[in-house]
Amino acid sequence: MKYWLVKWVVLLILFFTQCTTKKKVEYDIPSHYGPQARANAIDWFEKGKILYKVDCAGCHGIYKKGKDSVPNFTKTQIDNYNAMYIKGDPRNHSVASKLSPEQLYYILTFLRLRKVEK
Fold first, then answer.
1. Angle at 53 between CA 50 and CA 56, to 5 degrees
2. Is 62 in contact with 56 (CB distance < 8 Å)?
3. pTM value?
4. Are 115 and 26 contacting, i.e. CB atoms less than 8 angstroms apart?
5. Considering the domain boundaries, does residue 118 fall inside one?
6. Is residue 34 part of a domain?
7. Reduced to 3 states, what is the DSSP secondary structure of residue 44?
8. What would the DSSP string read from start to end of 3-15?
9. Is residue 8 one of the residues assigned to a domain?
């Protein structure tokens, strides 16, 4: 009985440690955004982060082996991907055809405005 209690306490400590040490993504929000626009933008970014994790991470390496990282896509790569999506280019990723324009907007906004560690 005592063994199980110790085991549960250790598991809870590990769980909460993982939750608190999770790296928070920071964003480069334009300075001219007002308080409400900033709040809306952060909401969009967080939606984009979740969508990226679900739809793109399998190939583009986010959250692999406990790392909270996204490849450093250039602005040109992001714009080209968006243009291919709008144009309906068949060489575009198959995932993009399953996303709504709004979902893709969230993902690309997340990628465009997140702070990149250099």
1. 125
2. yes
3. 0.65
4. yes
5. no
6. yes
7. helix
8. HHHHHHHHHHHHH
9. yes
**pLDDT tens-digit map of 88-107:** 777 766 677 788 889 988 98
Q: Which domain holds residue 43?
A: 2-113
Assess contact for 34 and 99: CB atoms under 8 A: no
Q: Which residues of 30-40 are buried (b: 16+ CB within 10 A; e: fewer)?
A: eeeeeeeeeee
The domain that holds 78 is classified in CATH as 1.10.760
Domain count, the chain: 1
DSSP state, residue 1? -
Reading the block at residue 94, the tokens are: 């198959």
DSSP string, 47-100: HHHHHHHHHTHHHH-TTGGG--------HHHHHHHHHHHHHT-TTS-TTGGGS-
Task: Select the highest-mean-pLDDT range: 21-35, 54-68, 99-113.
Answer: 99-113
The answer as to whether 21 is a domain residue is: yes
